[in-house]
Amino acid sequence: MSTTAAPVDEPLPSTALTRAAPTPLGTTHDDFVHMNTAHCESGVTASLLADAGHPIGEPMAFGVGGGLFFAHMPFAKIMGLPLTTFRSFPGTLFSSAAKRLGVRFTSESFRNADVGMARLDTLLDQGRRVGLQVNIFWLDYIPRQLRIHFNAHNLIVVERRQDAYLVSDPVVEELYECSADSLRRARFSGGAKVWGSGRLYYPDELPEQLELRGAVLGGLRQVCHRMLRIPRVVPWFGVQGIGHLAKQVERWPQTQGEERAREYLASVVRMQEEIGTGGAGFRYLFGAFLQQAAEQLAWPQLEDMAEPATQVGDHWRRWALHASRMARGKPSQDWPELAEGLRDMASRERAFLEELDRVRTAGPPPRRVPQLPDPNASHHESNPG
């Protein structure tokens, strides 16, 4: 299959965006099993590990990768709107999870589209499954109404075909083919190129057994540090970033005008509830991680933190309901009330994370070491008198 095509900056013909709905291709191909998950990068991470023989699941991948985060950055715009994120920055979840689990991996980016596509073909010809970071707008199997220009979506390429690629995209329920031209554009054109171009990644070597204990502790430490301990001179990140967003929300009607303020607010809700979070800004997914990690490590104090994480998610979801009504021009709360709701969220997140940090610092119960029989005692017992 040729990797040359029209320049990625040229527009696609109109038929490329209005073509008939693609055909789903099931959930398995050879020995590969597709996973439909809450979030793209944690889903790809879990899927790549499962394909290599280590099925840890999405919540565990999200947690050990330190996925939980918050940032509101007015200076970084996506489609003209300030960037709000409820998770770690793209690319960091896979790499952090892999490092903590002892997985050697390769990550590559490319300046030239032809070189990047040729590299992908070479890896696929070697039988590798390859993770990609792409702009979701150009993926021709995604319904048109769900596409936005954002080049931080993740998927797996399973194999290449005559003029297409078989892809496993965690946000859809089955495998699909993606045309070669569409995938090329998704990797190398359009959107906010905040995080590089053409990135691909894949595991190289995996240990026979993953060491979850250290990986769980590392993920918890990263989440607690970034959410609680970023200096105040950097107000956009962590729990203090939620308070910073509250100030912005309160000012938007005056600084941006009512209509533009509603657009800004809709963007926050979209990032919290719609852009592959599983709802509540990943807080539900993190709660599932805490529960699974507690079971794996026999750590009851950590299991006790799963319910508070879910409760924080519930409060985020209720706030999103009021915010979405305001964004539609049918408010159930005014702007100061929405801002106060965010300040309340910051207080709740801080209380939850400070308690989680105390549990983390105390650590899980020590591993039980089997007690071997005393050879002398055994000798005396077998030779009485």
Strand order of the largest sheet: 5-10-6-7-8-9
Can you tell me the overall shape?
globular
Low-confidence stretches: 1-7, 9-18, 378-385
Helix share of residues? Answer: 40-55%
Number of helices: 14
Indicate the structural class: alpha+beta
**End-to-end Cα distance:** 85 Å
Total number of β-strand segments? 10
Assembly level: single chain
Q: What is the string of SSEs from the N terminus onward?
A: HEEHHEEHEHEEEEHEHHHHHHHH
Mind explaining what this structure looks like?
The structure is a single chain. This protein has 385 residues and is of the alpha+beta class. The chain folds into 2 domains: 1-30 and 112-202, no CATH class; 212-362, no CATH class. It has 14 helices and 10 strands. The chain has helices at 15-18, 40-51, 58-64, 92-100, 113-125, 180-188, 212-228, 238-255, 258-274, 283-297, 300-303, 306-327, 335-362, 375-382; strands at residues 28-29, 32-33, 68-78, 81-87, 104-108, 130-134, 153-160, 164-168, 176-179, 200-205. The strands form 3 sheets. A 6-stranded antiparallel sheet has the order 5-10-6-7-8-9, with helices on both faces. Helix 3 packs across helix 4, helix 8 (238-255) packs antiparallel against helix 13 (335-362) and helix 10 (283-297) packs antiparallel against helix 12 (306-327).
